[in-house]
Amino acid sequence: ASVSSRMPAVSFVSNGRYLPRNAWRNLAVNHLNVDQATLTIRHVPPENLVFWMSYDSSETTNERDSNLAVQKTIPLKGSPDAMTTTWIDVASWLPSDTKGVLELVLSANGAQRNSARLLLTEMSIVAKKAATDPKEPWRESVRVWAMGMDESNLLSGVEMKLVRKSGLVVAKCTTSGEAGCTLKAERPDEDPSAPFAIIATKGSDLTYLKYADLRTDVADSDVQ
Description:
Distance between the termini: 59 Å
Structural class: mainly beta
Strand content: 35-45%
């Protein structure tokens, strides 16, 4: 009897969304019985961020919301039938001031495929949204804070924007350390559409929070 080789496989080790800039020099890739893979990177620029986020059914990028930034063949070395990790320096292929979302797609052997979507940022956002009246979905109050990605220090001077899927900004505020700031949205027009995301900027840095991705509901009963 003989035992055949294990099926080829290639994947990113982590699929986290928000990535400090110092981490994109060492992105880990796991591979098994694969000697090379194609890495394709598409870039969603900040001006297209809202429209990319507004696709509810898929996060896949396309030629309408992103640009092809990189396509490279990467050699992968490993022992037969042994899972191996290779570290990729993505930063060496892109401008150091790249902003917006990057979609990374790994493919090998014509069939194996794995993707990850990354936002390079030094900030993270915490938001607490008050209950919304279903009859007035446009009316919203959100308390927001910005923190440093590495040290979790609360940041001042971060501009927060509450947006609809159309890109319309319905509320703005600027954080002040521990106090954060409050986004209050009223109805600016006849459109009853509710806000769906927060976009934060400070200087050249940018990050976002999409409600549908990171919402945690609190039950009506007491929670400790």
